[in-house]
UniProtKB/TrEMBL annotation:
Protein name: Olfactory receptor
Record keywords: Cell membrane, G-protein coupled receptor, Membrane, Olfaction, Receptor, Sensory transduction, Transducer, Transmembrane, Transmembrane helix
rRNA-binding listed as a keyword: no
Subcellular location: Cell membrane; Membrane
Gene (name only): LOC101407980
Family indicated by similarity: Belongs to the G-protein coupled receptor 1 family.
Coiled-coil ranges from the UniProt annotation: none
Residue stretches spanning the membrane: 37-55, 211-233, 245-266, 278-299
InterPro entries per record: GPCR_Rhodpsn, GPCR_Rhodpsn_7TM, Olfact_rcpt
Chain ranges of the G-protein coupled receptors family 1 profile domain: 48-297
Length: 320
C-alpha cells in the first residue's frame, strides 16, 4: 500500500496527494475483456445523444419546449458519461489505477454538476408536460422561449453552485491515512469516510443538498404528475386520455429509472449488499442510464421517427 500511496510532508503530518481506484475487476484478463464492452457503450452514448441533439436542432418540427429540454438532457448525459467513462477506460489498461487529489476533485465536481442539473432538468420537463396537458390553450404563452431558456440557465446554475459547495466541503477535509477508493470513480461518500478530520459538516452539506436538490426536484415531479393525472381523468375521451398519457410516458420511464437507481444506491444500507453489487449499481447509474435515455425518448416517439425519415429523405436528395 505504501508503494501506491503518494504522500507529502506537511507540519509533521502526512497528507494524501493521490487516491487509488480499485476499479470494476481485479484480474487483468477480465479488465481487458471489459474494455471493448465499455468503450462500445461510451461511443454509443456519445453517438445517440449527439445524434438526438443534431436532429432536434435541424428539424423545425421539433422546435418545441419539450424537445428543447430533451436536447439539453442529451447534452447533460454526454457530459455526465464523459466525466467518468474515459478515466475508467484508461484504468482498464493500467496496472496501478491512481488518480491525483486535484483530478479526483475535478472528476467529482463535473459529475456532481451534471447529476444535480439532470435532477432539476427532469423537474422542469415534468412541469412542461403538466402545462401541455393541463393547460393546452395557454401552453405556447406559458412555455415561451424566454422562460424555457431561463429554466435551463437555472438548471445549470443550481447544479454548478451545489456541486461547487459539495466539492469544496469534501476536498477541504484533511486526508492522512488510507487512500484506497473501492470503486471505479471518485465517490464522495467513500472519499469522506477516508478523512482524518471531522466530516460532520461535509456530511451535513451532502445531506442537505440531497434533500433540496434531489428530493426537491422529485417533489416537483410528483406534484406535476398529480396534476397531469387529474387533468387526464377530466377528459371524456379514452383516446384523448391515452394520447395525453403517451406524451409523458417516456419522461416517466426516465424519471423512474433515474430516481429508482439513485435511491437504491444512496439510501440502501451498505452492509446489506456487497461491494460488487454497489459497483454494478454505479455502472448502471453512471454509464448505462446516459446511453438509455435517448433510446427511451426515441423508440416510441412518432415525431422523432418522422423527423428521422425527413432527414433521411433530405440526405438522399442531396446525394443525388
Amino acid at each position: 500500500m505504501a508503494s501506491s500511496m503518494s504522500m507529502e510532508w506537511d507540519r509533521n503530518h502526512t497528507s494524501v496527494s493521490t487516491f487509488v481506484l480499485l476499479g470494476l475487476a481485479d484480474g487483468k484478463e477480465i479488465q481487458l475483456l471489459l474494455f471493448p464492452i465499455f468503450l462500445g457503450i461510451y461511443l454509443m452514448t456519445l453517438i445517440w445523444n449527439l445524434g438526438l441533439i443534431i436532429l432536434i436542432r435541424m428539424d423545425s418540427h421539433l422546435h418545441t419546449p419539450m424537445y428543447f429540454f430533451l436536447s439539453f438532457l442529451s447534452f447533460l448525459d454526454i457530459c455526465y458519461s464523459s466525466s467518468n467513462s474515459p478515466r475508467m477506460l484508461s484504468d482498464f489498461l493500467k496496472d496501478e489505477k491512481t488518480i491525483s487529489f486535484i483530478a479526483c476533485a475535478t472528476q467529482y465536481f463535473s459529475g456532481c454538476w451534471m447529476g444535480q442539473a439532470e435532477c432539476c432538468l427532469l423537474a422542469a420537463m415534468a412541469y412542461d408536460r403538466y402545462v401541455a396537458i393541463g393547460r393546452p390553450l395557454q401552453y405556447s404563452a406559458v412555455m415561451a422561449p424566454g422562460l424555457c431558456q431561463k429554466m435551463v440557465a437555472g438548471v445549470y446554475a443550481s447544479g454548478f453552485i451545489g456541486s461547487l459547495v459539495q466539492t469544496v466541503s469534501c476536498f477541504h477535509l484533511y486526508y492522512c491515512g488510507p487512500n484506497i477508493i473501492p470503486n471505479f470513480y471518485c465517490d464522495v461518500t467513500q472519499i469522506i469516510s477516508l478523512s482524518c478530520s471531522d466530516p460532520y459538516i461535509s456530511q451535513m452539506i451532502l445531506f442537505l443538498e440531497s434533500i433540496f436538490v434531489g428530493f426537491g426536484s422529485f417533489c416537483v415531479i410528483i406534484l406535476s404528475y398529480a396534476f397531469i393525472v387529474a387533468s387526464i381523468l377530466k377528459l371524456s375521451s379514452i383516446k384523448g386520455s391515452a394520447k395525453a398519457f403517451n406524451t409523458c410516458a417516456s419522461h416517466l420511464v426516465v424519471v423512474t429509472i433515474f430516481y429508482g437507481t439513485s435511491l437504491f444506491m444512496y439510501l440502501h444500507p451498505s452492509s446489506n449488499h456487497s461491494k460488487m453489487q454497489n459497483k454494478v449499481l454505479c455502472v448502471f447509474y453512471i454509464i448505462l442510464i446516459p446511453m438509455l435515455n435517448p433510446l427511451i425518448y426515441s423508440l416510441r416517439n412518432k415525431e422523432i421517427k418522422e423527423a428521422l425519415k425527413r432527414m433521411a429523405k433530405t440526405a438522399t436528395h442531396l446525394s443525388q
